[in-house]
């Protein structure tokens, strides 16, 4: 089954939004398979945002991501990557719809509280970057038949 990498950024921790953000994914029927609080290194953030290192906003983004710990998570579910993006909402909170995490909690693109992998391929890369294989749990919640019509 598909997995995606979701991260609560330093502002989400500082603003005590860890539990409400996790609840969004639990309530949608996602399964939590990995979680840890990490104060990232420079090289980890450079690798995580490798596609963005030449952007003019990158120094600010890096400073933001290094300003405190983050909560790194892997969530499992059908279409986890696409659905994870939908739950998180548009990059710029000026465009993120109410009902999304960013649409409900954010104002500024440089303080958008949460990260979600943008594709299945990105999810694989990011999960491998942040977690060792033995940090990923394998289990089936007992309610899956109530979340999905056809359980894989
Ligand atoms: P992530 O889930 O964090 O990867 O965001 P995203 O996929 O919605 O957007 P993208 O990967 O393009 O950008 C990564 C992060 O860089 C964003 O979440 C913002 O925090 C930041 N960012 C992107 N564009 C801008 C910008 O124009 N200005 C500023 N200040 N930050 C930006
Ligand atoms: Mg992105």
Automatic annotation (TrEMBL):
ATP binds at residues 9, 57, 85, 91, 102, 112. It holds the Pfam family NDK. GO terms for molecular function: ATP binding; nucleoside diphosphate kinase activity. Signal peptide: none annotated. It catalyses: a 2'-deoxyribonucleoside 5'-diphosphate + ATP = a 2'-deoxyribonucleoside 5'-triphosphate + ADP. Keywords: ATP-binding, Kinase, Nucleotide-binding, Transferase. CDD domains: NDPk_I. GO terms for biological process: CTP biosynthetic process; GTP biosynthetic process; UTP biosynthetic process. The active site is at residue 115. The keyword Cell inner membrane does not apply. Its EC number is 2.7.4.6. Its cofactor is Mg(2+). Belongs to the NDK family. This is Nucleoside diphosphate kinase. It comes from Cyanidiococcus yangmingshanensis. The gene is NDK1.
């Amino acid at each position: 089954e598909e997995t995606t990498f979701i991260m609560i950024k330093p502002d989400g921790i500082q603003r005590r939004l860890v539990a409400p953000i996790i609840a969004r994914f639990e309530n949608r029927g996602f399964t939590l398979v990995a979680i840890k609080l990490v104060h990232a290194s420079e090289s980890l953030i450079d690798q995580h945002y490798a596609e963005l290192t030449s952007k003019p906003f990158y120094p600010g983004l890096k400073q933001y991501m290094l300003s405190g710990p983050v909560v790194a998570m892997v969530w499992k579910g059908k279409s986890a990557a696409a659905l994870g993006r939908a739950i998180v909402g548009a990059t710029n909170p000026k465009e993120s719809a109410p009902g999304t995490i960013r649409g409900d909690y954010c104002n500024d693109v440089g303080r958008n509280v949460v990260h979600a992998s943008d594709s299945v391929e990105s999810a694989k890369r990011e999960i491998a970057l942040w977690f060792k294989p033995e940090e990923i749990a394998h289990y089936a919640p007992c309610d899956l038949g109530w979340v999905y019509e056809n359980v894989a």
